[in-house]
Amino acid sequence: GTGGTITPSGSISVNHGASRTFSISANTGYTITDVTVDGVSVGAVSSYTFSNVTANHTISATFTPSTYTITATAGTGGTITPTGSVSVAHGGSQTFTITPNAGYQITNVTVDSVTQGPITSYTFSNVTANHTISVTFTPNTYTISASAGTGGTITPSGSISVNHGASRTFSISANTGYTITDVTVDGVSV
């Protein structure tokens, strides 16, 4: 059938009681699906021998295009589409789209253990083997600048990093002889 060869092929003469071996091979990008002898499957074999031939026989082979698996995974904080085990025909292409969730960013995309950086899509072209693609995400971080005037403290103080969606508590204390006059958040009195 299409996608391979059987050697020899055609009508082959064999003397009574003799043997004849046939070789079955798939073309690049195909695999042997099945070999049938006298209409009965003998499996996806690459060789078959007729021994002690005393009658006419038939042998035929079928082939299917090879397929490969690309395994796609994403860590917490986003998605890769498509995901899971994706089948791709020999020589085919497959594009993956990487999307971070709100409040996250792409940290890294790894293809077959090689770092690709924080990219938003990747295309496998002319696929001839199995592959892997994985993506990691990190939460966005924000800075809260905390400071106190003369006569008291705010704890923690300085530039404080906080992950997207997280909480952070600040303690405000007046020194002896002082009282808290006001606390402002983003320029608005609270």
What are the key terms here?
190 residues, mainly beta, five-stranded mixed sheet, 20 strands
Summarize the structure.
With 190 residues, the protein is an all-beta fold. The chain has strands spanning 4-7, 20-26, 30-37, 40-43, 47-50, 59-65, 67-74, 78-81, 84-89, 94-100, 104-111, 114-117, 121-124, 131-139, 141-146, 152-155, 158-163, 171-174, 184-185, 188-189. The protein has a five-stranded mixed β-sheet, with no helix packed on it. The chain has a three-stranded antiparallel β-sheet with strand order 1-2-5, with no helix packed on it. Strands 4-3-6 form a three-stranded antiparallel β-sheet, with no helix packed on it.
Characterise this structure:
The chain has 190 residues and is mostly beta strands. The protein is 0% helix and 57% strand. It contains no helices and 20 strands. It has strands at residues 4-7, 20-26, 30-37, 40-43, 47-50, 59-65, 67-74, 78-81, 84-89, 94-100, 104-111, 114-117, 121-124, 131-139, 141-146, 152-155, 158-163, 171-174, 184-185, 188-189. A 5-stranded mixed β-sheet has the order 9-7-14-11-12, with no helix packed on it. Strands 1-2-5 form a 3-stranded antiparallel β-sheet, with no helix packed on it. A hairpin with a 2-residue loop joins strand 11 and strand 12. The protein starts with a strand and ends with a strand. The mean pLDDT is 96.
Topology of this protein?
Blueprint: E1 4-7, E2 20-26, E3 30-37, E4 40-43, E5 47-50, E6 59-65, E7 67-74, E8 78-81, E9 84-89, E10 94-100, E11 104-111, E12 114-117, E13 121-124, E14 131-139, E15 141-146, E16 152-155, E17 158-163, E18 171-174, E19 184-185, E20 188-189
Parallel strand pairs: 7-14
Antiparallel strand pairs: 1-2, 2-5, 3-4, 3-6, 7-9, 8-10, 10-13, 11-12, 11-14, 15-17, 16-18, 19-20
